[in-house]
Amino acid sequence: MAFNVVSYSMDRPRSTVLLLVLITLGLGLQFPRIHIDTDPENMLESHQPDRETYRRAKKDFGIRDMLVVGIVDERGVFRPETLIRVKKVIDRILEIPGVITDDVISLTTTNNVTSAGGMLQIRRVMDSLPATQTEADAIQQAINANPLLEEKLSSRDGKGIAIYVPISQKDQAHRIGAAIESIAHTELQPQQKLYLAGLPIAEDTFGVEMFLQMALVAPLTGFAILALLWILFRKLTYILPAMGVALFSVVWSQGLLIGLGFTVHIMSSMIPVFLMPIAVLDAVHILSEFYDRYPRMGDKYATMKQTMEVLFRPMLYTSLTTAVGFASLVFAPIPPVQVFGVFIAFGIMAAWLLTITLIPAWTMLIREEQFAKSFGKLRENRGLLAAILPPFGRLVLQRRGTVMLCAGLLFGLGIYGVTLIKVNDNPVNWFAKNHRLRIADREMNRLFGGTYMAYLLVEGKRKGDIKRPEVMRYLWQLQQVATRDPAVGRTSSVADIVAQVGSVLHDSDPKRRQIPRDAAELSQYLMLFQMSGEPGDLANFVDYDYRLANIWVQMKRGDNREMTRVERVVGDYTRRHPLPSGVTVRWSGLTYINMVWQHLMVIGMRNSVLGGALVVFVLMIILFRSIVIGFVSMLPLSFAIVLSYGLVGLVGRDYDMPIAVCSSLAIGLAVDFAIHFLQRYRAQLSVNPDRVAANDYMFSEPGRAITRNALVVILGFLPLLISNLTPYKTVGLFFALLMTISVIVTLAMLPGIAWYMGHRQARSNNGQGPPSDKEPEGVER
Amino acid sequence: MKIRPRCGCRMLPVLALCLAPGMAAGGQSAKDIVRQSLQALYYPGKDMRVRVNMKLVNSAGKSRLREMTLLRKNIPPGGDQRFFVYFHTPADVKGMTFMVWKYLDKQDDRWIYIPAIHLVRRIAASDKRSSFIGSDFTYEDLSGRDPDDEDHRLMPEGVVSGRACHVVESHPHTKVDYVRRVSWIDKTWWLPLKEEYFDARGVKVRVFTADKVQRIGGHWTVTRRTMRNEQTGHHTEVVFTKVAYDVGFTLEVFTEQSLRRPPSQWTDSQ
Questions:
Q1: Range of the domain at A169
Q2: Hey, is the C-beta of A508 within 8 angstroms of any chain B C-beta?
Q3: Do A526 and A497 contact (CB within 8 A), yes or no?
Q4: A-chain residues near B96 (CB < 8 A)
Q5: What is the pLDDT of residue A256?
Q6: d(CA A193, CA A320)
């Protein structure tokens, strides 16, 4: 049935190639509709409760997309000549289209309320340019004296000031950021550094970088594979269809993804890089097999037909298992990871279809004389692998006890390592350490109250609940509790404002910085604050009905671990000190959202790995018609996963999204080696029950094929290492590690296990295995 | 009558050609028109008492309501004025009072009274362009801007809600939050029916509309007005009720003592 496709392609090579090219062109036409998605919120499903809370909080508290601009001068910013420049920068930022000028927070646009001698002074923090150093110092002191402004407008040491620039459209961030940089370039001196931070900038930059990576890393992977194939087969004409399979399957899956309206996220941008090395694996098998057989048969049609008959089933199963491994990612409730898994799975099955059609068809189009001319070269070229593998095979068989013991010990160590794993991620760390955004992030968090935002949302039952003095006092206490955590830089809330008004009204008496006990007094403080400010001043902290309040928790570090700890500290407090009646508290904000999807991912990945492994196990039982062999075939991938993740735990590397995703990839690919090994070993035994001979045979051509395949995959992923984005690097390196372990385990452990099994099989099996058991190749060699 | 803002001014080129540059029909300059409009909007009567309903609406459509009594007294000669504000609602701020002594030639004096702690505080503010009690209106929107602080230029006449208007373009001399203002001033009432403020980028940042005009005590009075912040989507609606001119209250109303003990016969306070 399915094999008819192969026959058709061989009988009608031209129309087959034409049809495949047309499909590819059709899907390729979808590419211009590409839409890049870098919004970290999209790591959660649209209706995930925490995400909905965050969306509502942003609306309730008018939270806008904001660029944070830092100007840092190590000699100190608060000097008359420097402040002139700062003022110019602010003035010119207010002239940039797309900036919501009324909501810009800066020295010259934000009010400070101070008091002296019974008189309230309401004026801009920097009302006029200071003429003397004393006046400049006074501005700095005034900021440090106001908890609402300190570490927000300027750093405590006066070496940096910050400007908060809300923008009307998130997609304008890049343009506005560039405009600010060019302003700084003309207005600032060389020793005055400008730092740009804020989520919109990070997202935008990440999108640009992702595009670059896709345009750079994907072609490089292509070239690396081309080079590898050339080293293996030495003839461009023959490896072209393999490259065709790689390219076409990339176009198919990426084209379909874009065509169906999915956005390209950090994960899905890696689809081409993942797909290419995997896509050529079956082609490598076909080419190896074809060139082994051709000299004996001398007829391209017959050789290809026989090659396909032999390989059809293993190729289908290895493709299926790999696809299943990726498809298991749908168990992770993180949409970009799901999309990635599904479309790679699709791409792998597309590659399978392309392999069984394009390669036979293409081969039919090559003139017969060409094969005759070049085949001789191939046979001699066995090289290093042929020298190393056979002695290795004998060694692991003789010392099988030692191998098992070592394997057992390593496995134990791996399990121990896994228990040490620290789940942690921080999307800012997706940029390389020396990326200007990472530098800005470090500097801004060194100087100011923290760029990582989390919100503690306080919700009352009735209008005005927030104005109840006991609720306000509770808010105030929650702030103190959160601030005690080392990761928290500063917090702010409506309670701060009330306390500050209390202090200012009483001639800036710090002892009066507290929450009034009387409800009317408290309300009147709030009214006074509103009367002395602009309409939006309270909006970020409390809603118009005074039913909802928002405590801004600014963190200096955005790691999930830090957020988890802060959440626990606050949670402990609310358990020990019950909330005022009718009031509830819950977390939100991007730093919290990141933590949520991290946690979901850990559970999701566990389910995904277990689910994927189960399906692969079932497939293996069907393939081998034996539960025992099915179980054995799962060993290399189990070892690969346990040892690799154990290593992650042992070296203290954070378990983050890219690392997590690799586990599913390992399932699908690591089992391939075992399939090939066990399938061929069993076939060989059914021909010749001598287990030593079978083992020797396994470390000749089959061992080389397995090793070659491993090399293609491992080296195919290495171009990821040159990337600027750490997820790319991580995946490249970690995946190479997983594959290396899988192939070593396959080649070192399976001979010993197969020895014991062969013992059983010799007694029980009378050659009633699956049809491919009867493949003739074993006999001929 | 009710006036709904309609899109901009209609050009009347023929009429415009008949006019000498910068001169309106009655031979008035742009500055004269602005001056007359200031009188009509901010100075009618010797004094005024009004119940003000102020509604602050954010971009999400949520609103805060404030109700207060506003007393104004002109101090002739010149344009100095005194204002007294008594808050009725929200209930928890009832009794808060606020007073402004407005001077043409210097910064205002302002005082506020916090009844819960029986405290009067003087407020020194350096900026007439800052928000009036947290609304989208500025202090200047409440009391007027000196025509000499801006350059005025007459534009072709326009129509707002079917009413013929002088259109004046004004540019402030010193840098403020806007660099250009276009006012549509009713030709018979002399009240501005619409004002648009533009910043240095040419972005329209604020729009004032007179939504309802009534004749009260012989004075055409804007009894419903809106100031909309076009950037933030925030706006403030102000409705005047119980408008009374020439009520006859004395200057003693505008003292620190009455902040603490509001003159209840004028402020409806109990």
A1: 56-206+436-588
A2: no
A3: yes
A4: 524, 527-528
A5: 94
A6: 55
Structurally, how many domains does chain A consist of? Answer: 3
Task: Examine residue A771 and state whether it is found in any structural domain, yes or no.
Answer: no
- Backbone φ and ψ for A434, nearest 5 degrees, come out as -95, 10
Which residues of B fall within a CB distance of 8 Å from A100?
231-232
Name the pLDDT band for B184 (thresholds 50, 70, 90): very high
Across the interface, do A505 and B229 touch by the CB < 8 Å criterion?
A: no
A633 plus A734 within the same structural domain: yes
* Nearest CA distance, A117 vs chain B (angstrom): 10
Whether chain B has a CB inside 8 Å of the CB on A1: the answer is no
* Chain A closest-CA separation from residue B28 CA (Å): 35
d(CA B186, CA B220): 11
Average pLDDT of the residues in B230-246: 93
B227 contacts on A by Cβ (under 8 Å): none
Residue A172 covered by a domain = yes
Q: Does A599 share its domain with A719?
A: yes
Q: Is A564 on the interface with B (CB under 8 A)?
A: no
Residue B92 is nearest to which of A127, A519, A536, comparing CB atoms?
A: A519
Closest CA to B44 of B265, B240, B254: B240
CA distance B165 to chain A (A): 30
**A496 and A521 share one domain:** yes
Is residue A633 domain-shared with residue A701, that is, in the same domain? yes
pLDDT at site B113: 93
**Nearest residue to A555 via CA among A441, A433, A436:** A441
Q: CB–CB of B62 and A531 under 8 A? A: no
Number of C-beta neighbours around residue A542 at 10 A: 24
- My answer on whether A546 and A510 are in the same domain is yes
Q: Given CB atoms, is B56 within the 8 Å cutoff of chain A?
A: yes
For A186, counting Cβ atoms within 10 Å of its Cβ (0-12 exposed, 13-18 middle, 19+ buried), the class is: exposed
Residue A269 within a domain: yes
Residues from chain B that touch A103, judged by Cβ atoms under 8 A, are 231-232
| CATH value at residue A757 | 1.20.1640.10
pLDDT tens column, A625-650: 889 889 988 888 888 889 988 998 99
Query: Which residues in chain B (174-233) have CB-CB distances under 8 A to chain A?
Result: 177, 199-201, 203, 205, 229, 231-232
Assign B16 a pLDDT band (cuts: 50, 70, 90): very low
- Report chain A residues whose CB lies below 8 A from the CB of B177: 101
User: pTM for this one?
Assistant: 0.83
Does A554 share its domain with A685?
no
Q: Say if CB B35 and CB B58 are below 8 A apart.
A: no
CB A583 within 8 A of CB B102: no
Place of tokens 């005055």: A192
Give per-residue pLDDT as tens, A108-143. 988 888 887 778 888 889 988 999 999 999 999 999
Spatial strand order in the sheet of A548-555: A488-492, A548-555, A452-459, A584-588
Q: How far is A179 from chain B (nearest CA, A)?
A: 14
Q: Is the pLDDT of residue A773 over 50?
A: no
- Please name the member of A59, A96, A505 whose beta carbon is closest to the beta carbon of B114: A505
Give domain status of residue A202, yes or no.
yes
A624 and A762 fall within a common domain: yes
Choose the final residue of a domain: A561, A588, A615.
Answer: A588
A676-688 pLDDT, tens digit per residue, is 888 888 888 888 8
What ipTM was reported for this prediction? 0.87
| Residue-wise burial string across A187-209, b where 16 or more C-beta atoms lie within 10 A, e elsewhere | bbeeebbbbbbbbbbbbbbbbeb
